[in-house]
């Protein structure tokens, strides 16, 4: 009996398809991992289930078996015919051919009449911008169960002072509760990536964890603070305020600190426009 990996390789060869590195295509071939992801997602009857980058359906099949209907977003048009063939007869598969970063998930949720439950092995190349895209449209989602590179997953849950703490950590800390569920070894994929992956469960909040008067300003502050990690805040934030030292002092933050030491609550306080001295 052939293995899942050899069957997928045979299917790709028969279709004349080579995995596209630019699109971050590392296809999940371990059915046990796929089943575990679906189990962790905790799908409920009537939920609108969405998968990003379904590839050849390793995760799509157990999702269809559990949910009955799955909406997929697949950028690579070459994969759609074999995806449909691999999932035929299991449930209702709705495929949108396009870029997941350009989808309006709020509109999709409205059209389906339910908040979205996203379950996906995300393409490595777009995983971080896609997560930020989800956070920006957080009202559209019931929850997310997603696979990232392990390094990215650990950045999502990192705390102040750690080497992995950065912009992604802060945005997740403001808008979401993130739980590391389990790691997935390279041999679970074809082609094998050079890194370990990790599955995370994400619950998105309707309101921020700490009051934020200006979300856009918050993003600017976080980006500037981590733009050059070795700079003190008084130097890193010069472009955002005419008097960065006074701004930081009014927020009760030592200007000599670095961005990686600030808590999410401190970033939220610092983003208050009322504390700032406008740049002329």
Topology diagram in text:
Blueprint: H1 4-15, E1 27-28, H2 31-41, E2 48-52, H3 60-67, E3 69-74, H4 80-87, E4 92-97, H5 105-112, E5 116-121, H6 127-136, E6 141-149, H7 150-157, H8 167-175, E7 176-184, E8 189-190, E9 197-204, H9 215-227, H10 233-236, H11 244-250, H12 264-270
Parallel strand pairs: 2-3, 2-5, 3-4, 5-6
Antiparallel strand pairs: 1-8, 6-9, 7-9
Helix pairs in contact: 8-12
Oligomeric category: single chain
Question: What share of the residues lie within helices?
Answer: 25-40%
- CATH topology of the largest domain, by name, is Rossmann fold
* Tally of individual helices: 12
CATH class of the largest domain: Alpha Beta
What overall form do the CA principal axes indicate? elongated
Order of helices and strands: HEHEHEHEHEHEHHEEEHHHH
Share in β-strands:
15-25%
Radius of gyration, in angstroms, nearest whole number: 21 Å
Structural class: alpha/beta
Question: How many domains, in number, for the residues?
Answer: 2
Sheet bearing the most strands, described?
A: 7 strands, mixed
| Tally of strands | 9
Which stretches are low in confidence, meaning pLDDT under 50 for 5 or more residues running? none
CATH architecture of the largest domain: 3-Layer(aba) Sandwich
Terminal Cα span: 72 Å
Full CATH superfamily name of the largest domain: Vaccinia Virus protein VP39
């Amino acid at each position: 009996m052939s293995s899942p990996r050899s069957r997928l390789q045979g299917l790709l060869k028969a279709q004349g398809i080579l995995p596209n590195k630019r699109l971050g295509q590392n296809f999940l071939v371990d059915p046990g991992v796929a089943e575990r992801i679906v189990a962790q997602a905790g799908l409920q009857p009537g939920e609108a289930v969405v998968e990003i980058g379904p590839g050849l359906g390793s995760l799509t099949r157990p999702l269809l078996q559990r949910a009955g209907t799955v909406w997929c977003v697949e950028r690579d048009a070459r994969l759609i015919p074999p995806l449909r063939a691999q999932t035929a007869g299991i449930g209702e598969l709705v495929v949108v051919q396009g870029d997941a970063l350009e989808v309006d998930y709020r509109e999709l949720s409205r059209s389906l009449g339910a908040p979205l439950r996203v379950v996906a092995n995300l393409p490595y190349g777009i995983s971080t911008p896609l997560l930020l895209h989800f956070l920006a449209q957080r009202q559209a989602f019931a929850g997310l169960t997603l696979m990232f590179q392990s390094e990215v997953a650990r950045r999502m849950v990192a705390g102040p002072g750690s080497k992995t703490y950065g912009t992604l950590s802060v945005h997740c800390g403001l808008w979401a509760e993130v739980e590391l569920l389990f790691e997935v070894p390279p041999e679970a994929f074809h082609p094998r990536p050079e890194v370990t992956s990790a599955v995370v469960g994400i619950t998105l909040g309707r309101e921020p964890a700490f009051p934020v008067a200006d979300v856009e300003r918050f993003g600017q502050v976080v980006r500037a603070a981590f733009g050059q990690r070795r700079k003190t805040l008084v130097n890193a934030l010069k472009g955002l305020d005419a008097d960065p030292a006074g701004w930081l002092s009014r927020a009760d933050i030592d200007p000599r600190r670095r961005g990686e030491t600030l808590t999410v609550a401190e970033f939220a306080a610092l983003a208050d426009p009322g504390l700032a001295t406008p740049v002329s």
